Amino acid sequence: MGRGKIEIKKIENLNSRQVTFSKRRNGLLKKAKELSILCDAEVGVIIFSSTGKVYQWSSTSMEHTLSRYNKGIEEDHSQEHPFDEQQAEKLQGIEVNTMKQEYLRLHTEYMRLNGKELDDLSFKELKQLEDQLNEGIASVERQKEQILMEQLKRSRLQEQKTIMENEDLRKQVEELRQKGSSNILELNPLLERRLDHSPNNSKADDNNSASDDDNHLSDTSLHLGLTSNIGRKRKATEIEPTTNDSGSQVASE
After folding, report:
1. Are 60 and 82 in contact (CB under 8 A)?
2. Which helix (H) or strand (E) holds 44?
3. CA-to-CA distance for 38 and 61, rounded, in angstroms?
4. Rounded CA gap, 29 and 239, in Å?
5. Residue 48 counted as domain residue
6. 66: domain CATH number?
7. CA angle, corner 114, sides to 108 and 117, nearest 5?
8. pTM recorded for the entire structure
9. Which of 65, 142, 145, 193 has the most CB atoms around its CB within 10 Å?
């Protein structure tokens, strides 16, 4: 009983597809080798799998086979399309004339758009040119307006960004000021305590007490000096009457 006919279509099952590819690849390479031996032909086979892997076989070398293939393609192409110098010159001349005409047309159109070479135009052509110019001007104005609106939008966004950055900086400065003032308030009592108990303050107190003692002594000496002067003045006043009395007695004698 013969095998059933296999329908030629893509195998959906991946494992079955890989098994079939491996079997048929080996069979194809075997047939190519047999063909090369039996018919004394140069045979080359290149196979790309669905995963991108390359399989190749050549009866001589793949480089030689590909070089021979490319050379044969070029020869076949030259035989199918023989080179005709006269025909090539004609084609080249036609192409040059076409390019010249296109250049003249574009140059004339450019000059007319600039308001020159309008003498040969009819009223209808002038109207069409006017409409074309008006349409171009309107397009330019729309483009200018769009660019200005985009610039204005970017400027507003930049302005808002700058305002937000300034506000953030202001808040940071306020926070730093508040932290600085709170730190100063916290440090003031500690500084006062340290200054009260510092040796410099004790020395200053000793100096103040010593100066107070000196002032007291000076005040005492001043009082003593004043009393001595007062006593001397009293003695002088007592002596003066006696001297006056003795003088009067001498005069009377």
Report:
1. no
2. strand 44-48
3. 18
4. 166
5. yes
6. 3.40.1810.10
7. 45
8. 0.31
9. 65
